[in-house]
């Protein structure tokens, strides 16, 4: 089944020893974080180049243990996870990036695969350093580029409010004495790829129509403002920011237009080898579904699997990470972390979703290993409650251990 993964911090981009893993998603090498496509230091030159275009990719595999699985579900502990192909270019004036992904799952005794575009955009860089991007690109909302350090991401990702990608236009400001601004308009979501579902073959979670609800996403506006302190200090960094989002949710069956909105405030800091994040997110989805469907339950989907999400709620997020000075044998760098997030839901009677990941990542050249222990309730990728964990939820606690091994080139 589809999985998720975690975060990084711009202030650490010169330190290869603080490279963060994106299990199931792009690895962001902090030494190359300003590149259009996240990359590790060892892969910064790519696999090969043709003119100004650089080509590269990755291959990843997983070992997983869930405390709620039966013994016969552990026949294949290690399996292929993801194949990534990417192309990036930067002429100084013109910029762009594209990435495609193939995922494999062994689910319910059956092989399952899905393929889709992760992102594909072209851009222009002005003399003052500002940029405009057109195509499928990351939505400017909350902690960027990610709100977590782990392979599973945070709860915000699973309701479409972390590392989301949509089709539209974005303005990225230069640094204005520590201030930065991003503004975007999105025509619609990133579209559907190849898979068995009706509309969930995609990378990031969106409102989807998998049957009789008739929903879609259109005309979304985003604004993100941030202030960075202690610029030029290699051992200290602090970013404070706020984000807003609004868009339409047209329904093909009822002919009515609903809407959705979200807002966030965040803090991201570095103190020597320690890092920390705080974020608060609130959201509401007002859908105009046909009679007989519960307006408090919204269908969202990604990775070729849909599930149900509460129509509104608040997300509280707190992360702590530490990169030890002590070097382990074989590895060039390593980081330990704890990422906590909880979703409290607005509809009456819905259980909170709790998601806590304790783990570490290790790197050597193009190789990255992530080891995570996740525990929670109602979290679709940590617990047994996949379909309704983010909606009505459950008070049952489950756990999962995941080891991801990746080679980036």
Brief digest:
It is built from one helix and 20 strands. With 409 residues, the protein is mainly beta.
Give short descriptive properties of this protein:
mainly beta, 1 helix, 16-stranded antiparallel barrel, 1% helix, 3-stranded antiparallel sheet, 409 residues, globular, 20 strands, disordered N terminus
Describe the structure.
With 409 residues, this protein is an all-beta fold. Helix content is 1%, strand content 52%. It is built from 1 helix and 20 strands. The strands form 2 sheets. It has a 16-stranded antiparallel barrel. The protein has a 3-stranded antiparallel beta sheet with strand order 9-14-15, with no helix packed on it. Strand 4 and strand 5 form a beta hairpin. The N terminus is likely disordered.
SSE inventory with pairings:
Layout: E1 48-50, E2 53-66, E3 78-90, E4 94-107, E5 110-125, E6 131-138, H1 155-158, E7 165-172, E8 179-189, E9 206-207, E10 218-229, E11 236-250, E12 257-271, E13 274-286, E14 297-302, E15 305-310, E16 312-322, E17 333-345, E18 353-364, E19 367-377, E20 398-408
Antiparallel strand pairs: 1-2, 2-3, 2-20, 3-4, 4-5, 5-6, 6-7, 7-8, 8-10, 9-14, 10-11, 11-12, 12-13, 13-16, 14-15, 16-17, 17-18, 18-19, 19-20
The run of helices and strands is: EEEEEEHEEEEEEEEEEEEEE
Strand segment count: 20
The shape, in one word, is globular
- Percent in strands: over 45%
What's the helix count? 1
Spatial gap, N to C terminus: 25 Å
Structural class: mainly beta
Level of helix content? under 10%
Largest sheet: 16 strands, antiparallel, barrel
Mean pLDDT: 87
């Amino acid at each position: 089944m589809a999985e998720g993964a975690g975060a990084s911090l711009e202030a650490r981009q010169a330190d290869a020893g603080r490279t963060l893993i994106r299990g199931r998603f792009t690895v962001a090498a902090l030494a190359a974080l300003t590149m259009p496509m996240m990359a590790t230091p060892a892969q910064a030159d790519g696999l090969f180049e043709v003119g100004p275009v650089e080509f590269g990719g990755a291959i990843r595999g997983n070992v997983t243990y869930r405390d709620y699985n039966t013994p016969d579900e552990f026949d294949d502990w290690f399996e292929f996870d993801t194949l990534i192909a990417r192309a990036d270019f930067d002429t100084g004036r013109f910029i762009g990036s594209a990435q495609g992904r193939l995922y494999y799952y062994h689910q319910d005794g059956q092989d399952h695969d899905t393929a889709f575009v992760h992102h594909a955009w072209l851009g222009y860089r002005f003399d003052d350093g500002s940029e405009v991007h057109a195509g499928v690109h990351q939505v400017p909302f909350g902690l960027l580029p990610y709100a977590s350090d782990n392979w599973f991401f945070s709860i915000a990702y699973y309701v479409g409010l972390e590392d989301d990608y949509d089709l539209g236009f974005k303005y990225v400001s230069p640094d204005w004495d520590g201030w930065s601004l991003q503004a975007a308009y999105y025509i619609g979501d990133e579209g559907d790829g190849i898979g068995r579902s009706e509309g969930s073959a995609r990378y990031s979670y969106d409102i989807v129509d998998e049957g009789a609800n008739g929903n879609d996403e259109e005309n979304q506006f985003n604004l993100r403002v941030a202030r960075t302190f202690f610029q030029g200090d290699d051992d200290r960094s602090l970013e404070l920011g706020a984000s807003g989002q609004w868009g339409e949710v047209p329904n093909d069956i009822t002919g009515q237009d609903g809407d959705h909105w979200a807002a966030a405030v965040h803090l991201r800091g570095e103190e020597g080898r320690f890092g920390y994040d705080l974020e608060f997110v609130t959201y509401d989805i007002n859908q105009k579904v046909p009679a007989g469907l519960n307006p408090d339950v919204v269908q969202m989907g990604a990775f070729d699997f849909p599930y149900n999400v509460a129509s509104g709620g608040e997300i509280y997020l707190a992360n702590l990470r530490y990169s030890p000075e002590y070097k382990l044998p074989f590895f060039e760098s390593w980081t330990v972390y704890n990422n906590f997030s909880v979703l409290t839901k607005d509809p009456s009677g819905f259980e909170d979703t709790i998601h806590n990941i304790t783990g570490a990542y290790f790197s050597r050249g193009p190789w990255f290993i992530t080891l995570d222990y996740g525990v929670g309730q109602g979290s679709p990728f940590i617990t047994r409650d996949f379909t309704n964990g983010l909606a009505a939820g459950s008070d049952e606690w489950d756990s999962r251990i995941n080891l991801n091994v990746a080679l980036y080139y």
